[in-house]
């Protein structure tokens, strides 16, 4: 009958309501980015994390690589949350200053990437952590989100 059953014979409904967000994840941003648009990434950091990354890119192409409007990378060994962009195969200047490192192993988090006219504003668990000024002029071309590394995704919006 197409239903998954657990050992008691009742349907397992979690997969119906919460489709698995598999890491590495690649998804389409409908209509691309524009000022006022917000991307929400919720997840749980793995127990023994090394790093995880969230990238907003212009398409999914691997060869040649798609332009990366912003790549956010949480590096646990250095307690850094670095960001950068890659345009025409050239990585820009990496930015790494943050007031504090917001991610804790085995704990949930909420990252919001708010697109404004001159920049992205990055919030973690409701606190603004930093701004990243656009290096890609055509915001609507930023239409793909990629997530990888030591985390479980619980929600994207």
From TrEMBL:
Q: Does the keyword Ribosomal protein apply?
A: no
Q: Which InterPro entries match?
A: ConA-like_dom_sf (IPR013320), Galectin-like (IPR044156), Galectin_CRD (IPR001079)
Q: Name one GO molecular function term.
A: carbohydrate binding
The reply to whether Heme figures as a keyword in the UniProt entry is no
Keyword field: Lectin
Q: Which PROSITE patterns match?
A: GALECTIN (PS51304)
Pfam families given for it?
A: Gal-bind_lectin
Which residues are in the Galectin domain? Answer: 25-157
Q: What does this protein do?
A: Does not bind lactose, and may not bind carbohydrates.
Q: What is this protein called?
A: Galectin
Which organism is this protein's natural source? Answer: Struthidea cinerea
